[in-house]
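**Reference record**
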Amino acid sequence: MALIANKKTNKILALGAESTGNFSVYFGGKVYFSPEFGDLLEEKNFQKFKKIVLNYLKENKIKPDIILTDLHPFYKTTIWGAEMAKKFKAKHIQVQHHLAHIFSAIGEKIIIENCKLKIENCIGIVCDGTGYGEDGKIWGGEVFQIQTGKLQTKRIGHLENQTMLSGDLAVKEPVRMLIAILNKFLIKKEIYKFVKKFYTRNQFELLYNQLQQNFNCQETSSAGRVLDAVSVLLGFSENQRNYKHESIDLLEKNSHKPYLGLKPKITNYELLTTPLFEYLIKNLHRDKKRLAAAAQLYIAQGLYKICQISNVASQIYFAGGIANNKIISSYLESKGVFVNKKIPRGDAGISFGQIIYFLTNWNK
């Protein structure tokens, strides 16, 4: 339990996201924060999740007035949350995924400093693999300006949009991301040289034609997808994912003292990631472990630079699954950015962030 001083008397149930099951409940001025339930896409995990949520509400005689879920319309937790809202005659409020990440960090700082649930304007950096954006695209490398108390949040920057070739399949097969990125500056036969280890000529032809036709392709600003592609290009991971963040974990594990001199390229508050791959391709003959570190540092420096040029002098927070990356988080912490230490930085902290978002902002 975490004590959160607030005038609101609502009983609030937050159901989190989906890839890492977790729920939080607010009542009596406190937040109950549950353990993790694993990936809720696995039906056995989801059934256990629902059972424990309902048991907790029953045992504590809680009838929620507010039910908070992710913005993604097809998450199991979103659909179930809407059903629960009807059952309890509660208000169903959807919270954008990355804002919940930021507010999980804000909430931890509030608890640590034992201060009131009122904070000054701040900036939040969020890096993860997948989050449903307000424009319907897949976000994951974002910078937000937050004005609390007025429910004003503004996405002021992000990573360059890259193409997820075959949509979600690009998460499982990161070479699809690599093909799409290299397509921005290399000709067809040059691209194939870098991916022939993973696909036959015929397979590549099909993927390349699919990309040209923009068939089953999604745009994403995800830092996770970019780093997946870096890991594959440098030879640290294969064209598969055995667990969440595997490619990024291998990239970090194989990183060494970064090459310096790679300056972030930013246009209209957008950190361009295509130039990063142009740099890597030109320097593949060099120490790949140092290139790996340079690539991660590029992301950290670029996102921090966006915060600087925004001219908003305020506290900066960093959250999301990639906040667990030591190279990126260490750089940002060296600049005074606040990063969670107790509340999980990834999706297991989403439900807590949803609660804090509501308590600090919602005044309707």
About this structure: The longest strand covers residues 122-132. The longest helix spans residues 288-309. The chain has 13 helices and 15 strands. The CA atoms of residues 252 and 352 lie 28 Å apart.
